[in-house]
Amino acid sequence: MEKKNSKVNEKQTKSSDAHVDLDREHRCGYPEVIYAEGKTTDAIRRIILIQQEAGIDSFATRMSREKADDLLADFPNAEYNPAARTFWNRLNKKKKSKKGKVAIISAGTSDQPVAEEAMETARWMGAEVVLIQDVGVAGPARLHARTPDFKDADAIVVVAGMEGALPSVVGGYVAAPVIAVPTSVGYGAAFGGVAALLGMLNSCASNVMVVNIDAGFKGGYVAALIANRTHK
């Protein structure tokens, strides 16, 4: 496998400006992820081909519909989620066995794109995922009614904008780690997600940790990492 990767790396250096880390899965458990924003379609295509030749599933985030449409013609096994803006080139379509369980909870429908990015990331990492949407603090009964769906999760991602209060509430219901993802949803004083970020950083719930604004990928990745290692 090392010889094959070495040949692919040599070929890639001559054909692309990207230096693809084919050893990432061996070192860190999961392959390198493609950040599609700012990359041309051709550049992304070359990276996917390099990973495919090495037998690696490609997962890309922040991909536009236009780029995805071009790439889907070349990679028929790929899946594109337009809400999440994720692109997954699945080399093996057979269902992988599920490992840990991750719950993704969003405060409102405006937070859906970030929540779905977290969901697709956790799915790509092999976790069992449950998505619970539109259960924000403005209607607390909605969250309470869904507690059976996330009570047994190994890790929970909570996505919220505005004042960012939902992670603290969820944290008070569970014994699992809660990864809070602030979103840029909100009016002027929300400051593009800064208000939610600061509210989450000041959470009084001891099991809440926080990632960057709109970072659904990071929230889903950390949650799946925790959940999967729990069941290793």
Low-confidence stretches: 1-15
| Helical coverage, percent range | 40-55%
Gyration radius (Cα, Å) is 18 Å
Q: Estimate the mean pLDDT confidence.
A: 90
Shape: globular
Total count of helical runs of at least 4 residues: 10
Termini separation: 24 Å
Strand order of the largest sheet: 6-5-7-8-9
β-strand percent reads: 15-25%
Main sheet makeup: 5 strands, parallel
Give a concise summary.
About 40% of the residues lie in helices and about 15% in strands. By secondary structure, it is α/β, with parallel strands linked by helices.
Protein model, in words:
This protein has 232 residues and is of the alpha/beta class. Helices cover 41% and strands 17% of the residues. The strands form two sheets. Strands 6-5-7-8-9 form a five-stranded parallel beta sheet. The N terminus is likely disordered.
Descriptive tags:
single chain; 232 residues; alpha/beta; 5-stranded parallel sheet; 4-stranded mixed sheet; 10 helices; 9 strands; disordered N terminus
Write the layout of secondary structure elements.
Layout: H1 2-15, H2 24-28, E1 34-35, H3 41-53, E2 58-61, H4 65-74, E3 78-81, E4 86-89, E5 101-106, H5 112-124, E6 128-132, H6 140-145, H7 147-150, E7 155-160, H8 166-171, E8 178-182, H9 194-201, E9 208-210, H10 216-230
Parallel strand pairs: 1-2, 5-6, 5-7, 7-8, 8-9
Antiparallel strand pairs: 2-4, 3-4
Helix pairs in contact: 1-3, 5-10
